């Protein structure tokens, strides 16, 4: 087995690894596999009683760990910047492997869904993920008086873009302590966005938590907010609250009811001041023209 991607923690140490078997391994697991001779290009060594990995002298044609390493933070920014997958050389071995897997799934008759002109996910995976959130999607849409299919379509878009890194993100989630405004969950909600929505009174995941009180939440750390935003239900509800806040803000500021394509465009962008002539982008158009009917088909057929 070869390591095709390594994820570094906030101290720059590799903590998760993806092998060319498609599996995600912890450092301890890779060290054990290396000691048993199952990992090519690496050696397990010990210093001061601590085991670690180093490059093997016989790693001809196998990249060093630093050549396939990305930061934990970059995983949480991936859906908002998918071009980095194509432009950063560290991603290439993993991305090429992932594309090969999609080709194999397509050969088995599975429908492949693209984003940014690149194959990213299978329709089967999208359906599985979306249906697991179905109850939250409908209840959140009802509470915030928004279109459930638009909410679901936005979640489909985010799911597709995160799909290659889904298992990695899941394994990071329990140990990651964020210090920056990362995006998390099926709806890829930014932590600062969640804080703002709580402060504005749109959604409070735990009214009994004093740190989430509207008068106190501004001083609450992103790391504390993280535990709520990574919860499946709250993640969907924060997304629905954001959509409602966009609708309200634009109606109040410029007196227009923004159409779905504009909502879908604004959702994944940094805050844009309302104006009378909003423009869509390619991502927003795809959400409405392609992922909206897909969301309706999936949710209505189950």
Question: What are the defining features of this structure?
Answer:
Lysozyme; alpha+beta; single chain; four-stranded mixed sheet; globular; two-stranded antiparallel ribbon; 302 residues
Please explain how this structure is put together.
The chain has 302 residues and is an alpha+beta fold. It has two domains: 3-110, no CATH class; 120-301, Orthogonal Bundle (Lysozyme), CATH 1.10.530. The protein is built from 13 helices and ten strands. The chain has a four-stranded mixed β-sheet. It has a two-stranded antiparallel sheet with strand order 4-5. Strand 7 and strand 8 (118-122) form a beta hairpin. The protein is globular. It starts with a strand and ends with a helix. The mean pLDDT is 92.
Q: Care to give the gist of this entry?
A:
With about 300 residues, the protein is an alpha+beta fold.
Spell out the blueprint of helices and strands.
Blueprint: E1 3-8, E2 14-19, E3 24-26, H1 27-35, E4 42-47, E5 50-55, E6 69-71, H2 72-76, H3 83-87, H4 92-107, E7 112-115, E8 118-122, H5 123-132, H6 134-144, H7 148-162, H8 166-173, E9 183-184, E10 189-190, H9 191-199, H10 222-229, H11 232-254, H12 260-267, H13 282-301
Parallel strand pairs: 1-6
Antiparallel strand pairs: 1-2, 2-3, 4-5, 7-8, 9-10
